[in-house]
Specification:
The chain is an all-alpha fold. It is built from 3 helices and no strands.
Length: about 90
């Protein structure tokens, strides 16, 4: 059997109420079970969060390396695109 160490955790009133509700509903046998389940879920999600953070860092770097921002007018872009479409249809 694994060694178990008892720790004290401070929870906000909202989180404490969630833990109590989970136990009172019978979904969990104790507050410890609720916390263990939450920690298992957290451990499983950590690699996904780290991968997403890395993806965002790369996107940020690519954006910075792409050069300075150039202002644009969306209506002008639409107008030019419509003009190209009309020209393409005429051909």
């Amino acid at each position: 059997m694994a060694t178990v160490e008892k720790v004290s955790v401070a929870l906000s009133p909202e989180l404490l109420e969630m833990v109590k509700d989970a136990v009172d509903s019978g979904r969990y046998g104790s507050a410890s079970e609720v916390i263990r389940e939450a920690l298992r879920e957290w451990r499983l999600r950590q690699p996904l969060r780290e991968a997403e953070a890395e993806r965002l860092r790369k996107a940020w770097t690519e954006g910075l390396e792409s050069g300075p921002f150039a202002a644009f007018d969306i209506e002008d872009i639409k107008r030019k695109a419509r003009g190209r479409l009309v020209d393409a249809v005429k051909k």
